[in-house]
Amino acid sequence: MIIHVPAFFMTPKILLYGHRNICRQFSSYRQLILKVFLAHHLKSYKMKKFIVLLLAVGLAVSVKAQFNADKDPLITKSLSNQSIRKVIARTSGGSIVVAGVSEGEARLEVYVRPSGMNLGNMSKSELQDKLAKDYDLIISTANNQLEVTAKSKSSINWKRQLSISYKIYVPRNVSSDLSTSGGSIKLSNLNGNQRFRTSGGSLQIADIRGNIEGKTSGGSINADRCTGGEISLATSGGSLKLNNLKGIIQANTSGGSIRGSNISGELKTHTSGGSVNLDGLSCSLETSTSGGSMNISVIDPGKYVSVNTSGGSVTMSIPGSKGMNLKVSGQSVRVNPLKNFNGTTDKRSISGTVNGGGIPVNVSGSGNVNLSLI
After folding, report:
1. Which of 13, 21, 48, 155 sits in a 20 to 30 Å window from 176, CA-based?
2. With 70 as the cut, is the pLDDT of residue 61 above it?
3. Is residue 103 part of a domain?
4. 241 CB contacts (<8 Å, ≥6 apart)?
């Protein structure tokens, strides 16, 4: 704190005039005035400090209370008394989340934010007004079925569009039919048949029991801890991550790598533009790539094994105790150890039976092929 004291009270020249007692009295008088002056300014300073503190607290409360379109739902609807068994959700500009919870926690949250570059930041009331003016948002809970659909009332310039997303929390025993053209889809902790598709985002599924059909044209797919009769996943523009899956599984990508582990049942997975890394397989296997190497570990082969790459090498292991009809080809082929084998071998191919024959095992690559019979 800086206080400017008048020079009159600070100058010593006054002591040069008058009698000593007068000077003492004047000095006491001067000190009294100085104390009053300082007390006044100190009180003023504390008041100003208090006002600044109030303003700071008010600003903090205002910021805290401000609506955040990315974190705060514009609409929340309780579903705790609806006994939902199926979810149908449609949106053209946002993401969809469906998660299994207890019945008392069931609810629908609708998130709305400006996606067009001409809209800028919008308040909650502005978002509500634009949503009502330009979009039809339909929410229905008839016949144990939740249906939520958002679509524009007319053609809207993309620079002035809204992104409308859903977070749907329902009881675990629920099936779904989901569609969005502009966001990701995430499902977790559900029992039932799940069908979902997006044109512009990733797919993430975990802890699902039931048939699964998921498609995306522009993102990666991550599937973990899923058990189903049939699991079908496809992407045109991303990678595949497949972990802890059981069922008849078909997973394809046109533009990314494939990684997977701990898979049982049957797996057919293909890529046109990446590597393939699969570990801990206890399943029938068909896999191929046109643009990468392959690294595969089979613990327990099912009815067949087919591995092919036209753009790289193959490193693979499979139990050597199984009866196999073995056919291996590549620029350079190596099978180790090759025991109980009956057939033909050369530098680029091996063809014959192992342990009297049995499971068809076909492995081919454009580069080196190394097969370990463990």
Report:
1. 155
2. no
3. yes
4. 220, 221, 222, 223, 224, 259, 260
Whole-number Å distance between alpha carbons of 337 and 327:
15
User: Do 251 and 168 share a structural domain?
Assistant: no
Q: What is d(CA 33, CA 43) in angstroms, rounded to the nearest whole number? A: 15
Overall size of the chain counted in residues: 374
In the predicted structure, residue 84 carries a pLDDT above the cut 50: yes
Rounded CA-CA distance 171/103 in Å is: 5
CA 297 to chain centre: 28
Collapsed DSSP state (helix, strand, coil) of residue 142:
helix
How many C-beta atoms lie closer than 10 Å to residue 39's C-beta?
10
213 and 318 fall within a common domain: yes
Domain tally, the chain: 3
Nearest to 91 by CA among 70, 115, 68, 69: 115
The pLDDT tens digits of the residues spanning 329-356 come to 999 999 999 999 999 999 999 999 999 9
Whether 353 and 298 have beta carbons less than 8 Å apart is answered as: no
Within 10 Å of residue 179's Cβ, how many Cβ atoms?
18
What pTM was estimated for this model as a whole?
A: 0.80
The Cα 51–Cα 366 span in angstroms is: 77
pLDDT in tens, 162-191: 999 999 999 999 999 999 987 999 999 999
The separation between the first and the last C-alpha atoms of the chain, rounded to the nearest angstrom, is: 81
Instruction: Identify the bridge partners of residue 296 per DSSP, sorted by sequence position.
Output: 278, 316
